Hints:
- This protein is of the alpha+beta class and 186 residues long.
- It has one domain (26-185).
- It contains two helices and nine strands.
Amino acid sequence: MNNVTIRLKQVLILFFIVFLSACFGPSEDEVVTAMEASLRSMQVSMAGENLKLHERYDEAADMSFVNDDYTLLHTVKVTAKDDMVIISGECIFGAYKDDVTRYTMNGSMTYQLKLSKNFEGRTGSGEVTCKLVLIGGRIKELEYFFSIAPNGQFRELTVSANKKKIDMSQYKDALNFMHYITPLKR
């Protein structure tokens, strides 16, 4: 065989590998890693030094968190009602780079949660929606929605990565959203 034939075979094999990996999409572990990056980033945005209190009412407060390089903007409204706290928020990612995965994220996450006044995660319930464009890994687009039952467990979890639906049912216990809102306890 001559060099041109060998190179042509190498290119065809490489093309076939790339084609197969695109057909099968990212693995569930890769999806969990990307989801955790978005949740961790939301948590990082809530660091105490980033907090700006905008309004404080009798039983409510409006606040925001902006990180040093302005790549994360997180707005939160907290309302106390009877023995519950209602937290509504939106975290906007603008070329935010996760230090762990090195993913750069663009998009947003919105949520509405109800917790006991002591912020006990096991009593939390609510809904979370996230839509992101990612740079730096196999996942280019990530969308997820989940609802949490009043006992803190997932009631519903739908995930798509690179526009393909991913069955994440085996990860329902591993993805503990309430863990990521702990900075609100401070």
